């Protein structure tokens, strides 16, 4: 499979910051009925990653990174 988990602690602070900022800038990354500030979104995603509730992945074929919730079915396929 061409999708790999990237341990968050293996990224530099700046690299992680860039990945999270790119992720929260995408359409469809709503966090509630009320629009949250970018800073709030950033903290939310970073906390999820640090607590293991979200996972950073890299897709070799598409050459993209993404952040998925730890219970996402895509990750279950990786573990199989």
Description:
- It is built from three helices and three strands.
- The protein has 80 residues and is α+β, with helices and mostly antiparallel strands.
- It starts with a strand and ends with a helix.
- Strand 2 and strand 3 (64-69) form a beta hairpin.
- It has helices at 13-24, 38-50, 73-79; strands at residues 3-6, 54-59, 64-69.
- It is globular.
- A three-stranded antiparallel beta sheet has the order 1-2-3.
- The chain has one domain (3-79): Orthogonal Bundle (Arc Repressor Mutant, subunit A).
- The longest helix is centred in the middle third of the chain and has 13 residues, at 38-50.
- The mean pLDDT is 87.
Would you summarize the structure shown here?
The chain is α+β, with helices and mostly antiparallel strands and 80 residues long.
User: Largest sheet, order of strands side by side?
Assistant: 1-2-3
**Oligomer, anyone?**
single chain
Number of helices: 3
The top-level CATH class is Mainly Alpha
């Amino acid at each position: 499979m061409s999708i790999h988990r990237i341990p968050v602690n293996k990224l530099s602070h700046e690299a992680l910051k860039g990945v999270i900022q790119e992720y929260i800038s995408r359409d469809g990354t709503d966090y509630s009925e009320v629009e949250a500030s970018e800073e709030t979104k950033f903290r939310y995603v970073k906390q999820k990653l640090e607590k293991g509730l979200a996972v950073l992945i890299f897709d070799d074929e598409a050459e993209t990174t993404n952040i998925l919730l730890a219970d996402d079915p895509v990750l279950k396929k990786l573990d199989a």
